[in-house]
Structures are given as structure tokens and as C-alpha cells.
Design brief:
Helix content: under 10%
Keywords: Signal
Protein name: PKD family protein
InterPro entries: PKD-like, WD40/YVTN_repeat-like_dom_sf, WD40_repeat_dom_sf
Pfam families: PKD_2 (PF16407)
Largest sheet: 6 strands, mixed
Distance between the termini: 100 Å
């Protein structure tokens, strides 16, 4: 048995030596794809979120011919497979710069041929234009209008939230929209009292980013039925139906959608019950105003922080005029309006600190209970090195007194010193008043449905009107349009639900 084992070992060793001595002749058969080269007309393609982008490669086949049918195809956007068609027809959901990869796969061999990587840049259609909050079938929803400057036409979007969130309900009882930037990211705030309550969306992708009630340090307040939210560069405030004011302070380098609200309402001497928070060009001013019904007075909000390390909010009473320029005898002291009833207030000509201080012109409409005459009282506020000064300006009869009612909506056209307001028992008429001249009000337009929302463009040259029947109309309010020397109506969108609010996006914010 020992000899047999030795013999087998010798034979195996000889076989291994023979194998090791075989010569490599280098004659391999490599599997190759059919010859094709792939090029694109550009290394960068531009598209728009939620709109179709089409890309057709330039293919050159070998001498034996061929076609796209001889290959399978794969398109990748930022690493995600998005199409298996020969040409790309793609509807992107996220704005930004994306790596675009295309490969052809030879059906007979499975070998891939890659095109050079290219870039797909997707712009947001919601970045600029008019954002619309409306109510349809008891639910809140979002629409949008933008102007296509290349094709000189308006493009509309509707049911944006439910489309973006697989049919999820946005909420109910819609109130207001706000739009603000934070560390380069814009947020669209939806103020509503039902469903999710107030929420924030990424303003470019329109994806939900934050539910406000989940963002309070120490837990949400008992009453989060908001009537308004003020969005300013370094701080925010939320006003609820009880007139309480909750703050949100920003650090110098905040992470978007991460800064918490404080669940303890702000306090002031004599207390306060806020029923009106003025809409402001908050990117242009660090000062705004609110009406305190509890004490029948106007309060100012100072956001001019004493340092650059974080947010700052100071709510205080209107300072007294300088001794050299006191309240004229016919003026009402805005710190104690006594038997005068506050009707409406708005800021005009809001300017940041460009060396002359922070300045705002304010207008307050007031009347005595039971009387029809409304008086306009104006003032100027200025902050120089955080020292606030107040200057009374003028007081006169508001010539639209006989037209307004308790449901009238007002719009401060900030850079033209005009007030637009709805009128009539059904508020289907729109008038405007020139603050400077104080002349009789003028009819701007009559509508077939009640006016429920008014908004102006940042340059005060356009205005958007929302109606109860779901119509949004864009108007020119340039001097030529107001004098009848140019067309007023620019565009009309129909078929939405009752319009709750409209804002411009990408500007000074409100």
C-alpha cells in the first residue's frame, strides 16, 4: 500500500509541473459592444422642476450600422435611475444641480457604453411669482402664477401641496402666507387654524419641512390658532386668537428649519391683546407695528439687535414726540386712543439703515364708535443707533369713509403712498386713495365675486386680487394704468377655491 501512495504522489507532481510550464500565448477573445459613440449638444442642460425636460443624445454607430433599438438604455440623475428610454423625458422634483449619467447597454453582449457625464440644472418654478393660498372643499391648498419671460406668457400651478405629498391634506381654515429666507434657503409659511396648523415648506421644492406646533421649546402652547406670523431677518413672532405673541429668535448662522419657537408669550407693561399685526417689507425694515386692543394703543416692534450674535425682539409703546414737535391739537395719542376706534394700519416707505437710520411711515385709520367718518393719521418713525424717534405728520378725513364696512380689506401700496380697499355691502368693488393728495377716492374695478385677498408686487407696480369664486387677477397699477393710458388687467387664473391670501415670492417678503 505504501508503494501505491508514493506512485500516485509522483504522478500528481509531474502533472503539476507540466501545467506550470504551459506557455501563455495571449490569444483571448474579448466581448465587445457594437461600436457607438455618444455625445450631447451641451455639457449642461437646464430644466424646471415639475416640468418636462427632454434630452436626445447624438449617437454615431460603426461601419456595420446599428440603431438605438440594438441597445438597452439607462439614465441616472444624482445616482438614481430615472429612465430606461433611449431619449430622456424627465420631470424633476428637486431644484438644484444634478449629475446626469447615460449608458447604452448592448443587448447581444450586455456590455455598457457610457456617455461623458453631464449636468442637469433644475430651477424652481416657485422661486418667483405669486403664491396663492385657497380653500376648496373645506381644505387648504396652494397655487402659483409665474411669468415666463422667454415665451412672454404666464404659467399657472394648482393643488401643489396634495400633488407633492401624495394626496395628503395641507390643513383647513387657511389665513395667511409668509415667505422668508434663512441661511440661503427660502421658507413658505402657511398660516392656518385647522388640520396640521401652521407649517413651513421649502419654498423652492414645496416639500413640507416643519410643522410649527412640533417646533416649540417646552411643548406647544395651549392655543396655536394663529391669526398672523411676522417673519423678520433675525426673529419671528406668532400671534394667536387670544392676542398672545410668541417669539422665535435666530442665531447668527442658523440651520434652516431648526430654530425653535418659545412657548412663553411675550409680556409688556399693562399687558396686550394683539388683533392686528402690520404686514411689512421685512427685508427692508427692522421695525413694524401691531394694535393692542386691550389698551387701545399702537405698539412698535423693534428688531434692531444690539449685537450680531442672535435674534432680538423689543415690543414697546410709541415714543412721545420731541418737545419741539409735539402732537398737534387735533391728533390722537397713539399710546392711548381713548374713545377712538382703530380701523386699520399700515406701513409705507420702509427703508433699512443705509446711513440715515431705519425709517418707516405709518398710517392709522380711526373713527369714533357709531360715527361714519374715518380719519387718517400719519407719522414717521426713525431708528438711529437704536434710538427711536417719533414724528406726527398729518391728520385728515379719509374720503372713502362712506364706502367701507367691517369686512373691508385694505392694502398698503408701500412705494406709491396709496391705499387700495374693498367696498360695498358685498365687497365686490375695489377703490384706491392717494394719501399724499387726500383727494376723493377712485373706483379701480368692480367684480362679480367678493374680494377676499389683495397683494402688491415689491416695486408697487402690480397688484393681485383674489376672489371668493376662486379667481386670481393680476393688474398693473402703474401710473399709466391708473390714468387709463395702459391696460390694467395682465392675467387671470380661474377654477381655484376661495382665495385666502396671495403673496409675492423671492422679494422683500411680508
Amino acid at each position: 500500500m505504501k508503494y501505491i501512495l508514493k506512485y500516485k504522489a509522483i504522478v500528481l507532481g509531474i502533472l503539476l509541473l507540466q501545467t506550470a510550464c504551459l506557455k501563455d500565448t495571449g490569444n483571448y477573445d474579448y466581448i465587445q459592444a457594437k461600436p457607438v459613440s455618444i455625445k450631447f449638444e451641451s455639457t449642461i442642460f437646464d430644466g424646471i422642476v415639475d416640468e418636462v425636460t427632454e434630452i436626445t443624445p447624438l449617437r454615431t454607430y460603426g461601419q456595420n450600422g446599428g440603431s438605438a433599438d440594438d441597445y438597452d438604455h439607462e439614465w441616472y440623475v444624482s445616482g438614481d435611475l430615472v429612465s430606461r428610454d433611449s431619449n430622456l423625458v424627465y420631470t424633476g422634483k428637486l431644484p438644484g444641480t444634478h449629475l446626469l449619467t447615460y449608458t447604452m447597454i448592448d443587448k447581444s453582449t450586455g456590455v455598457r457604453v457610457f456617455a461623458a457625464n453631464t449636468t442637469l440644472r433644475l430651477a424652481s418654478p416657485y422661486q418667483n411669482g405669486w403664491a396663492i393660498l385657497y380653500e376648496e372643499n373645506g381644505q387648504s391648498e396652494l397655487g402659483h402664477i409665474r411669468y415666463d419671460n422667454i415665451n412672454k406668457t404666464y404659467i399657472t400651478y394648482r393643488d401643489i401641496y396634495s400633488t407633492k405629498h401624495n394626496g395628503e391634506s395641507l390643513g383647513s381654515k387657511p389665513i395667511k402666507l409668509k415667505n422668508y429666507p434663512n441661511a440661503g434657503v427660502w421658507s413658505l409659511v402657511v398660516v392656518q387654524q385647522g388640520g396640521q396648523g401652521p407649517i413651513e415648506l421649502d419654498s423652492y421644492s414645496m416639500q413640507k419641512a416643519l410643522v410649527t406646533r412640533e417646533a416649540f421649546a417646552g411643548g406647544s402652547p395651549n392655543n396655536l390658532e394663529a391669526i398672523n406670523i411676522g417673519c423678520y431677518p433675525n426673529a419671528h413672532i406668532l400671534v394667536n386668537t387670544e392676542g398672545q405673541v410668541f417669539p422665535r429668535l435666530f442665531s447668527s448662522n442658523p440651520i434652516p428649519f431648526s430654530m425653535p419657537w418659545l412657548n412663553i408669550p411675550m409680556q409688556i407693561e399693562k399687558g396686550m391683546h394683539i388683533t392686528d399685526l402690520w404686514d411689512a417689507h421685512a427685508m427692508r425694515t427692522y421695525m413694524s407695528f401691531m394694535y393692542d386692543k386691550l389698551n387701545n394703543r399702537l405698539l412698535y416692534i423693534n428688531l434692531s439687535t444690539p449685537n450680531s450674535t442672535g435674534g432680538y425682539i423689543d415690543i414697546d409703546t410709541i415714543p412721545s414726540p420731541q418737545a419741539s414737535a409735539p402732537y398737534p391739537p387735533d391728533h390722537v395719542n397713539l399710546n392711548n386712543m381713548k374713545d377712538w376706534e382703530y380701523v386699520w394700519g399700515g406701513g409705507f416707505n420702509e427703508l433699512p439703515n443705509y446711513g440715515n437710520g431705519i425709517t418707516v411711515d405709518g398710517i392709522v385709520l380711526m373713527r369714533k364708535p357709531g360715527e361714519s367718518d374715518i380719519f387718517l393719521q400719519s407719522f414717521g418713525m426713525r431708528s438711529v443707533n437704536r434710538v427711536i424717534s417719533f414724528t406726527p405728520k398729518q391728520r385728515k378725513l379719509f374720503t372713502g369713509s362712506h364706502l367701507v364696512n367691517e369686512n373691508t380689506k385694505y392694502l398698503a401700496v408701500k412705494n406709491k403712498d396709496f391705499i387700495f380697499f374693498t367696498a360695498g355691502a358685498d365687497n365686490k368693488a375695489l377703490y384706491y386713495y392717494d394719501i399724499i393728495t387726500g383727494n376723493a377716492v377712485k373706483l379701480f374695478e368692480k367684480f362679480d365675486s367678493r374680494i377676499t385677498a389683495l397683494a402688491e408686487s415689491d416695486d408697487s407696480l402690480q397688484m393681485s386680487v383674489g376672489l371668493e369664486d376662486g379667481t386670481v387677477i393680476l393688474f398693473s397699477i402703474s401710473d399709466n394704468a391708473l390714468t387709463g393710458n395702459a391696460d390694467k388687467e395682465l392675467f387671470r387664473m380661474t377654477g381655484l377655491g376661495k382665495i385666502a391670501d396671495i403673496i409675492t415670492k423671492g422679494g422683500f417678503m411680508r
